[in-house]
Amino acid sequence: MDQLSWTNVNPHKHVQRYWAHLTLAVCVVCYVCYIFYDELRGYIRLRQAYLTSPQHRLRASATTVLVTAIPERWLTIEALDKLYDVFPGGLRNIWINRNFDELSEKVKRRNKIALKLEAAETDLIKRAVKAYKKKKGKGMSKAKMDMEKIDENMQAEQMASGTGVSSGNPHQVRHSVREALDDSEFPSQPPEEEQKRRRIPVPVVGHGLAVVGGGIDKFGHTVVGGVKKVGRGASERLNSSGGFEAEDEASQSAVRPDPNVDPGTQARTTDSPADHTRDAPHREYTETNGAGDAEGRSGWMFWRTGKKSRKDDVSRKGREEDELPLSYSSPVIPDANAQATVNDRHARNEPKDVLRKKRREISPKAHGVGQEDSVREGEEPPAAYNKEYEDDDYGEPIWKKYLSESDRETMRLPIFGLTWMPSLPLLGRKVDTIYYCRKELARLNVEIEQGQQEPERYPLMNSAFVQFNHQVAAHMACQSVSHHIPQHMTPRHVEVSPDDVIWENMSIRWWERYIRTALVVTVVVGLVIGWAFPVTFTGLVSQVSYLTTVLPWLGWIKKLPGWLLGIIQGVLPQLMLAILMALLPVILRLLAKQQGVHTGMAVELSVQNYYFAFLFVQVFLVVSLSSGITTVIQKISKDVTSAPGVLAQNLPKAGNYFFSYMLLQAFSVSAGALVQIGGLISWFILAPLLDSTARQKWTRQTSLPRVQWGTFFPVYTNLACIGLIYSVISPLILVFNIITFSLFWVVYRYNTLYVTKFRFDTGGLLYPKALNQLFTGLYVMELCLIGLFFLVRDEKDKVVCLGQGIVMIVVTALTVIYQFILNSAFGPLLRYLPITLEDDAVARDEEFARAQRKKWNIGGEEEDEGRNLNDVLEERERREREVDRADEDIEMKNIEARRQRHMLDPRKLMPGPNRWTDSSRNRRSKDFRHYPRRQEDAHTTSNQHMQRNSMKDLEAQRASRIADALFSGIHDEIEELTADERDKLVQRAFQHEALRAKRPVIWIPRDNLGISDDEIYRTQRFSKHIWISNEHTGLDSKGRVVYRRSPPDFSELDLIEL
Q1: Helix axes 766-791, 709-729, angle to 10 degrees
Q2: CSC1/OSCA1-like 7TM region domain spans which residues (predicted)?
Q3: Mean pLDDT over all residues of the chain?
Q4: Cβ(1030)–Cβ(118) under 8 Å?
Q5: 1038: closest CA among 120, 137, 261?
Q6: Which pLDDT belongs to residue 825?
Q7: Which residues are CB-contacts of 715 (< 8 A; sequence separation ≥ 6)?
Q8: What is the 3-state secondary structure (H, E, C) of 775-818?
């Protein structure tokens, strides 16, 4: 290797050969600088094409600017409107942010409590079912047990495919985009119509009378099953069998059939104790205060009715006749539209007084927020739960037939009553998990929803979102100086995704951000320098046998067993090092978040800087200087100008190490990325061990891995820097660099297309930052060459490469100037759009609109002029018939070709397994009979054959059904919406996440014993503010949770990138 590096030249005989090194170094610098220039040009073209694409310009993030550090004087709708109305197109929306940190903490705690309650309920049901099966299986033959398992699996499949029971659904979730659009129409109504609707004497509980303004039929979209009739009141009762009996003057609810379920599924009866409860129809409940008492009151203010709670006389064996049904809907629904102040899209063409009038119409008071729908002073808030039903002492719960009290899950409360402290074993009060979480969840639901009803109680932040009508106006607003005082109304960010906002950092002042940045940089520098000590410790652990001879007090280690000592020396150091390297990105992201940046992508940009600095120091510098680190430190501390010479002496020695390092990274990282070791471990090891609830299983199945770009780029930027540094000193490393990055290109291209998911991105902003970081490798190479040239001496100890060294100093200075000019020229274009692209973007928008009309067969005026609707429909039907006819011709040709091949097959005379008695859904006709692959298959009995095929078909159908239920029919493309529809969805998108938080559902599995239904009933009796459901879930023969739908609180709106 040394023959192909710098050390191969004899300084005493071949001094002139160093001019070749200088020439190659200058060529490398010039070529790399040109590549940087060309890559930045290509990046800018690509980014501009992406930002001006019609698909991207449809998003609200393309036209919305986040303005921070706003002075109090300008923190009003009118002031911001006057300030930014000068830009072309005018404003569309303005959101002034409020500090909901207190509410946000409650939301986070509620989510944790809900998950804990869900896990505890699931565990209780699974334990009870397991105990029942254990008792039932005694003395049962193996054949009968196998048949029981098959029957239990089929029952679990039917339960998961059918509808279950639910209680406390507040109807906050809009499962589809259409529901959200229908539901978002009411804010645009004038306040006069709003007041009229409030006087409608229909006591509808759930989403409130404000939704009903467009007609009772629209309300049916938000209620599961729809509402066919709304009477004067509703009073249903849950009979002892678990079904519903409607009394006189009760509202009749329609049951929405499940299109994917066999009609006979819900009517199936078995011998299980709770089939009558499991197959009860899912209905909605409408509560009244009695005859005519609902008039003049908001439907959800049930605590004003004067109705006192009382403990009913409940027997130990039965239930009351007048109790509420399990599908009782929650009386509380948040209305968080108070924060959005909306301008009309054509606001620039209207007088200011008209705009102010519109803003007053859509202000919080216009919607009753803080007036009729909030708790007035002197009134008590609603009770979160009924204290008389805290425990299961009213009627014997079903789980007690199979379990004892000690079998229930318990938990320890945090000490000193501090919720932020973790629960510690043997410390803190021990409580029943289900009982405690029920009370906490009910209390938090009431407090959160009451806070969501009154957003004006929370203080204003010094930031706001301003949405423009034109994309170019948003970019102009970001580049303009907004305020006459330094650091006011800055920084301003465009291309901010609503779900990527870090809300707790939105109120940080500019001087506070500077202080935080200084502290974070100091901590990062300390980490970069001090991280070598724990890494060194892991190396010492690998040499523990040698340390025992040097340090006598470690002699006890020699007494350990040989296998244990081998693990300590071989496995433990690698494990410790892996944990250290995994912790570092987490620490850096935490520090970047504390720095005060406003978005998750800004965090990734900061982490990219910090992580690259860490890798360059720890991977490159420490390794290069490790041979004589103490001597190096002493020399540099005495004379800083000696750094180039010190680096020049040590760099060539470390070249061979980086050869092997490059190959190791190339093969190990690329192979691991292709095999997806983390995904395999997660799916086949962690999932069976950790995922016990339906939600945990659903989350793991529907979540794709995501790339953390802040720690992804620096790894490969560092490898490229190492290649640049050694490109002249040891040119062979370029070959290893080519191999390494070729493998990476193949691997990550595949993963990017098919494996990983990208919900948020910077639009490519990490790439120019990585290019600038590559200048680090260029500078280190030039400094090392300067040192190496000045270290070349003849027999008289005279510098013989003085000219080469001076030339390299000049090249280094020119490189610095070049980088400065490059960043000055390309800097504004790296993030913002020029005005010259607006006309081209508008033309592409029009072309895209025509393509969309053609795609959906909606002809434009210029295309369909002179054609009536019948002509358009006939043309569409004709095209559809042609497509169907072509598909049939292709299918018939394929069938005929397979039939010809089959007729020539001599095995067609052999008997096949498929007969007309085969119960398989995938049974083929006799013309497509197959010869058995194994000889023993031909001798199996018909019963065994049918049993085996039915199990195979059940698995295949189950996988297909899950995939269809989870992933098909989801409309998450914003291109499918009109401009008005997108604007309606955006109204809530830029509101604080605490205002948009929905009540979580406790999703538990159904079972044949009726324990799940009984738990829902008891939760409903305890509190009307807990949403609990067992819809589309079940337990298979092994006691594992199965599901066939997404959770009831899942919404397509969560997938749409606005």
Answers
A1: 30
A2: 517-789
A3: 74
A4: no
A5: 137
A6: 94
A7: 615
A8: HHHHHHHHHHHHHHHHHCECCCCCECCHHHHHHHHHHHHHHHHH
Q: What is the pLDDT of residue 284?
A: 37
Give the count of alpha carbons within 13 A of 452, CB side only.
Answer: 26
Determine which helix (DSSP H) or strand (DSSP E) holds 902, and give its type and residue range.
helix 869-903
Residue 765 is given by DSSP the state T
3-state SS class at 433: helix
1025-1040 b/e with 16+ CB inside 10 Å = b? bbbbbbbbbbbbbebe
DSSP codes joined into one string, 125-143: HHHHHHHHHHHHTTT--HH
Residues with Cβ within 8 Å of residue 1058, at least 6 apart in sequence = 59, 60, 61, 497, 498, 974, 982, 985, 986, 989
**b/e map of 466-489 (b: 16 or more CB within 10 Å)?**
bbbbbbbbbbbbbeeebeeeeebb
Least confident range from 543-552, 697-706, 1038-1047: namely 543-552
pTM: 0.72
pLDDT tier, 664 (very low <50, low <70, confident <90, very high otherwise): confident
pLDDT bucket at 898, cuts 50 / 70 / 90: low
Judge residue 386's burial from the number of C-beta atoms within 10 Å of its C-beta, 0-12 exposed, 13-18 middle, 19 or more buried.
Answer: middle
Pick the most confident of 40-44, 564-568, 670-674.
40-44
Give the separation between CA 744 and CA 448, rounded to whole angstroms: 48
Per the omega criterion (within 30 degrees of 0), is the bond before 491 cis? yes
Structural contact between residues 705 and 755, judged by C-beta atoms closer than 8 angstroms: yes
Q: Please give the structure tokens belonging to residue 767.
A: 């790439």
pLDDT digits (tens, 9 = 90+) for 574-601: 788 878 888 999 999 999 999 999 999 9
For tokens 């639910």, the residue is 166
**What are the boundaries of each domain within the chain?**
2-55+510-836, 101-453+971-1055, 873-946
Task: Please give the pLDDT value at position 871.
Answer: 58
The whole-angstrom separation of Cα 106 and Cα 98 is: 16
Query: What is the Cα Rg of the chain in Å?
Result: 35
Q: Which is nearest to 651 in space by CA: 798, 467, 782, 762?
A: 782
Separation of alpha carbons 395 and 387, rounded Å: 16
Q: Could you tell me the CA-to-CA distances from 36 to 45, 239, 587 in Å, in that order?
A: 14, 76, 31
Res 635 pLDDT > 60:
yes
